[in-house]
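Chapter summary example.
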Amino acid sequence: MLVRTSGEFRLSDFLLWQTTYSCLSFVQVLWPDFSIWHLYAGVIKYQRNYKAIQEAIKDNLIERERLQKESDYECAMEELRQKQTNHFKDTDIKSCVEDYTKKREQRIKMFLDDLERRRNTFFDDLATDQQVTNAAAT
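The structure predicted for these 138 residues follows.
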């Protein structure tokens, strides 16, 4: 739930990605006058919209999965075309799509693992630099 005070019906590019499936509550009161009762009204609005928000999340997930399967199919067909095979069997297409999906998932996993490794290295280096700075200061 995101509460926007002052009655403005805009977010000014604030937290756009984070509020994707949020309940937005725009109240006329200014921030210094915002009370617990305004918060309660926002919570009630959220509770009324909870089911619709959950359905939107579910529908989006289904659509993303459909689009991913469609993309995997198109990429697998392109790979088959590049092999210059003119006669495809359904089993060939199905196995090619499954192979492509596995390769894509492996690429994603490798990318995320590398990202995690780099993040950990960055924080380890940052902690080491901080320890050196603290030791030099004492």
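To summarize the output: Helices lie at 36-82, 90-137.
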